[in-house]
Amino acid sequence: MNQTLRFDYSHACKFFEQTDLDQLAPEVLRSHIQLHQGTGAGSELRGWLDLPIKCEKSERERIVQAATRIQENSDVLLVIGIGGSYLGAKAALEMLGHHFTNLLPAGKRRVPEIYFVGNNISPVYLAHLLELLEGKEVSLNVISKSGTTMEPAIAFRLFRSWMEKKYGRPKARSRIYATTDRAKGALRQLAESEGYETFVIPEDVGGRFSILTPVGLLPIAVGGIDMDELMQGAADARERFLSPVLADNPCYQYAAVRNILYRRGKLIEVLVGYEPRFRFFAEWWKQLFAESEGKDNKGIFPVSAEYSTDLHSIGQYLQSGTRHLFETVLTVHKSDVDVTIGDDPANLDGLQYLSGKGMDFVRQKVLQGAMLAHVDGGVPNLVVEIPRLTAYHFGELVYFFEKACAISGYLLGVNPFDQPGVEAYKANMFALLGRPGFEKMKEELEARIRGDD
Ligand SMILES: O=P(O)(O)OC[C@H]1O[C@](O)(CO)[C@@H](O)[C@@H]1O
After folding, report:
1. Where is the active site (predicted)?
2. Atom from ligand 1 closest to the CA of residue 201
3. Interface ipTM > 0.90
4. pLDDT tens-place string over residues 395-428
């Protein structure tokens, strides 16, 4: 069995020529140089490249100590954050943890229940979460690089005050951990004035590339995931995906092939998972690629699907709808556990031919069958496979996609490290909410909403 992540584009080959790849090799080399020598756009945000080998031992120890304290004194960890300050940790916990971890009886669960908040604007979500916290010991990790993002800031105001009421201000302080910029932003100021323990998001690492900083690592460690193993997987991937030569670098091949498909009219990439545990990894991946590439009126639109359930809903479109998409199948070679299909000689359900077979066998066959059908239907398929679902391979996956994304952005001719488009809705939102300084804009927007000429 292959011991590392494997990328396979053989099911996409009939949709382009080998010469397309050959011709792209010099552009890939140029993108590699831009990334590694810092000559490309957004070069001040390349700190993630070396995170797997740069995270200081003392910082890791502090994360482990904080995580152990939280595990010992809390039933619940609340993690406040949105986008890159949320999705990475959520992806790791979902992918590597127990499916129903928060529902396991305390005796069977080794770690606190972990709930994410500040990632939506639903009053119902907040109210229900508050109900759930009744009678529980709680710690809180608030995460925001800018320290000014509205959704987490509102949630933090609410839960900080809840914690202060429950524990009194001094004790609440010892249960609040802030992950933010070293010096800038409202959260940094607040954390310092209150004396919270803080963790730093390096200045040269953007939100969506921050999973291997304390942004991801603290909640991941609280969830009982081996942080060192995860970082080792990322560190080994860093070595493995270092070659500037396209033929030798699977990570660059992924970037190149998706770029070729895009140039050939495949405008949508569907990240397909066969494990419900991949759902939030796909959410993390979507932010990574959408914010990195979707600009200057360009970019592949990243979406995700969960098979086999989605084969019974959007499967029809995938097979026979508009041919403007390709799939990237994210899969694991072998499940850690298997469940055997039982014997039933009466065979009223007609399933006796599967008697004695494992669900993992079924999963593999559905995957192969759907892939071949979709390829026959005109959908190129790429495959990213890891041997097992472990922290090590999670780290590998993260690094593979982050680096492919950066190279992909340079191949596309955009700055992969900014996200100016996200600001447009924010300005409207602030104006409509009545933030000081936005008065004129508020008037104009309200006139448009009323339908005035
Ligand atoms: O960590 P912060 O600064 O709160 O930002 C959260 C998210 O919001 C964005 O800035 C977009 O609004 C993302 O890029 C980022 O991951």
Report:
1. 291, 426
2. 1
3. yes
4. 999 999 999 999 999 999 999 999 999 888 889 9
Residues whose CB falls within 8 Å of the CB of residue 350, separated by 6 or more in sequence, listed in order = none
Hey, whose CA ends up nearest to atom 11 of ligand 1?
Answer: 422
Which residue, judged by its Cα, is nearest atom 8 of ligand 1?
83
Do the domain assignments include residue 437?
Answer: no
The residues carrying an active-site annotation are 291, 426
Q: Do residue 199 and residue 335 come from a single domain?
A: no
**What pTM does this model have?**
0.96
Q: Is the dihedral of CA 343, 310, 271, 286 positive or negative?
A: negative
Last residue in a domain, options 202, 225, 248: 225
**Residues 178-205: pLDDT tens digits?**
999 999 999 999 999 999 999 999 999 9
Instruction: List the domain range (segments joined by +) for residue 312.
Output: 6-40+231-412
Give 399 Cα–ligand 1 centroid separation in angstroms: 20
Answer whether 80's CB lies under 8 Å from 118's CB: yes
221 and 239: one domain? no
- Are 293 and 348 in contact by the 8 Å Cβ rule? The answer is no
Give me the number of domains the chain comprises: 2
- Does residue 154 sit in the same domain as residue 249? no
Indicate the top mutation candidate among 180, 293, 422, 430 to test ligand 1's pocket, ranked by most ligand atoms within 8 A of CB.
422
448 CA from centroid of ligand 1 (Å) = 28
Query: Whole-angstrom Cα distance, residue 27 to residue 33?
Result: 10
